[in-house]
Q: What sequence folds into this?
């Protein structure tokens, strides 16, 4: 029952929220929260549940974004076909690189995924004949069966629906034998292997799933903004995504959503600090990690349980 | 004594009257999204400082149309996606009257669809030609383009009877854009690019590429498109290889640093550069002289830093905006847009601006000066 309660609350928030959104800027922030949350829910499977760090997921986001941009603008593909092809291609790429990369642990895994992200970034910058290089490229508006998503309101509902679907998918994985296997890997990989779990296979799978999530959101973001630059796959974006997982709470799907919401809104709220925003931002992150090391949602949930 | 007191009182009264008048009316809101942090911070930082400085100056002088200017700036951290959010915020939340900003081409282009939809005049501070080609109704820009730099270099080569050029472009955003534009306009000037090589911005040795260019049959000059220390390495290597072909650089090296790093090898190098960088070397009758010297003095006095052309772009953008608001006698968005499009003979740091419905930048090749390095310093060529 517990899993439906969370979902129902979130669905209710999504339905009621437009009452508080006064203009397209407010919608824009809400849409970005939704998209980031979708991606972080996927990334959380890898980082939070399986305990494998990735500092290169913005690379997959970028690949999805550019797949959509290039296939729709240069080859006239319908956006949905471009998006699905991008997801498939990213899935294959992630699958191929996952085995060698996920054999590494700790710092080495961090380095390898970091390198992967940087390689993708360099390719996007240097293949300027395809990607427009550093100056970026235009992306057409998203349309499906002749119906196009032209304004923020339409995007809001699509993003909300996609987020809910992503959460259902993620929860299903978490609550399945796969999810238990992943948590076993997180606890102790050696112990998991002794218990007969093919740890490599599960790690590869979850890596591919999280990469495909990233690619899908990349495609959506590209169509939504209408213009992309290789910065979407930069190292800083990867860090931002990992931070969302950590602040919200590792191994907590709704924590990931909250993390995405907080880290998307903070820069907007802090923008008045003119130049000091990075300091305030850093301070908030530090305090979170020091006082809420498990992230917001798990810590608060544990407090509530104790007081019961 | 008495007279000076009287004068002071008079000034105070006038100022009071002015500020009272200014307060009576709503301020004119200028919105700006700049890349103050992130990879493009070296562009965005002087832009923000310039806007801050001149908005303050204009307000101290009584504002525009008797109204105060109010500046709203957001830092996109060199992310086009964030620029897209912030421009919505400026339009919807802050309800600005005009936009001056957009440090990078990426940020600008991510703002363009929003701006066109909201129908608000927007003066970009980014370089690429795509911003104004094709012409977008509400979008203007102040910086000269990389294409103009290539054209200026070709113009000078033509005068010297050079037609076959070896191109050496840096592997950076700047270098790649330069390469694209150079190849695009070569035909127009009857130039033949007989060699086309590239190098990395951090390469410590470029002699291989240079030797290849040197050995190309019929090459008459070398054009290098790069930024920062890369071109200095190229220049030194050319000196070591004893290449005596006429050597052209782009506006990307127009800083003292380049001469210092290249040493004697830089002698005789020619490059197109904005007037701002050679403010002191400009002849007295140059129309841009008072503007660039004035800007340079004001900026240095406030921030104790060297001026850069990027800050100059922001100065030009703000002044074009203010001029248009004055001529439109209101902040009505459509009227201000039309007034910007009719900007004629505006003398900025980047050159003389003559906008038209088909040209939303309004600069011609005279915006660039041809410089030659002689005795370790910039000298204007003809």
A:
């Amino acid at each position: 029952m517990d899993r439906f309660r969370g979902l129902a609350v979130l669905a209710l928030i999504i339905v009621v929220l437009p009452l508080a959104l006064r203009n397209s800027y407010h919608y824009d922030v809400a849409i970005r929260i939704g998209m980031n949350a979708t991606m972080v829910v996927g990334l959380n499977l890898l980082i939070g549940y399986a305990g494998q760090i990735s500092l290169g997921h913005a690379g997959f986001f970028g690949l999805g974004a550019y797949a959509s941009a290039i296939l729709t603008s240069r080859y006239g593909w319908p956006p949905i076909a471009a998006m699905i092809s991008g997801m498939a291609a990213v899935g294959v790429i992630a699958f191929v690189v996952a085995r060698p990369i996920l054999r590494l642990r700790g710092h080495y895994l961090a380095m390898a995924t970091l390198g992967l992200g940087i390689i993708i970034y360099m390719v996007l910058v240097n293949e300027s004949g395809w990607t427009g290089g550093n100056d970026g490229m235009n992306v057409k508006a998203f349309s499906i069966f002749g119906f196009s998503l032209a304004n923020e309101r339409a995007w809001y509902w699509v993003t909300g629906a996609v987020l809910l679907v992503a959460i259902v998918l993620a929860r299903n994985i978490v609550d399945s034998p796969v999810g238990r296997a992943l948590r076993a890997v997180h606890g102790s990989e050696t112990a998991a292997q002794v218990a007969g779990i093919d740890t490599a296979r599960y790690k590869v799978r979850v890596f591919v799933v999280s990469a495909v999530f990233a690619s899908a959101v990349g495609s959506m973001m590209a169509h939504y903004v209408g213009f992309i630059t290789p910065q979407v796959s930069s190292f800083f974006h990867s860090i931002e995504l990992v931070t969302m997982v950590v602040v919200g709470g590792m191994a907590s799907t709704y924590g990931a959503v909250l993390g995405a919401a907080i880290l998307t809104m903070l820069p907007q709220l802090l923008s008045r600090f003119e130049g000091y925003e990075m300091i305030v931002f850093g301070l908030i992150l530090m305090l979170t990690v020091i006082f809420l090391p498990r992230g917001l949602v798990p810590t608060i949930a544990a407090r509530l349980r104790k007081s019961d | 004594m008495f007279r000076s007191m009287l004068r002071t009182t008079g000034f105070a009264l006038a100022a009071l009257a002015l500020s009272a008048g200014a307060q009576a009316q709503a301020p004119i809101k200028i919105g700006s999204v700049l890349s103050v942090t992130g990879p493009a911070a070296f562009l965005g930082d002087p832009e923000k400082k310039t806007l801050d400085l001149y908005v303050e100056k204009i307000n101290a002088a009584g504002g525009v149309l008797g109204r105060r200017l109010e500046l709203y700036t957001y830092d996109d951290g060199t992310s086009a996606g964030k620029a897209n959010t912030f421009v919505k915020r400026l339009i919807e939340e802050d309800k600005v009257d005009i936009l001056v900003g957009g440090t990078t081409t990426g940020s600008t282009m991510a703002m363009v669809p929003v701006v066109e939809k909201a129908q608000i005049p927007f003066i970009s501070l980014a370089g690429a030609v795509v911003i104004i080609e094709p012409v977008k109704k509400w979008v203007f820009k102040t910086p000269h383009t990389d294409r103009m730099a290539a054209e200026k270099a070709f113009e000078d080569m033509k005068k010297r009877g050079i037609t076959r050029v070896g191109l050496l472009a840096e592997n950076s955003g700047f270098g790649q854009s330069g390469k694209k534009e150079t190849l695009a306009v070569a035909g127009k000037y009857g130039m033949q690019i007989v060699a086309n090589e590239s190098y990395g911005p951090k390469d410590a040795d470029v002699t291989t590429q240079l030797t290849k260019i040197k050995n190309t049959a019929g090459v008459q000059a070398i054009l290098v498109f790069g930024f920062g220390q890369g071109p200095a390495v190229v220049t030194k290597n050319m000196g070591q290889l004893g290449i005596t072909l006429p050597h052209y650089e782009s506006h990307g090296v127009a800083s003292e640093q380049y001469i210092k790093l290249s040493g004697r090898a830089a002698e005789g190098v020619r490059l197109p550069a904005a007037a701002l960088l050679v403010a002191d070397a400009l002849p007295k009758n140059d129309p841009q002289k008072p503007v660039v010297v004035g800007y340079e003095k004001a900026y240095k006095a406030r921030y104790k830093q060297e001026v850069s052309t990027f800050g100059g772009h922001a100065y030009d953008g703000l002044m074009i905006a203010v001029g248009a608001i004055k001529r439109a006698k209101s902040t009505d968005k459509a009227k201000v847009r039309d007034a910007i499009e009719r900007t004629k003979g505006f003398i900025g740091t980047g050159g003389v601006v003559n906008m038209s419905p088909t040209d939303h930048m309004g600069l011609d090749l005279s915006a660039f000066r041809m410089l030659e390095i002689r005795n370790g310093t910039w000298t204007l060529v003809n």
Observations:
- The first helix of chain B runs from residue 2 to 24.
- Chain B has a mean pLDDT of 89.
- Residues 70 and 237 of chain B are 51 Å apart (CA to CA).
- Chain B is about 45% helix and 20% strand.
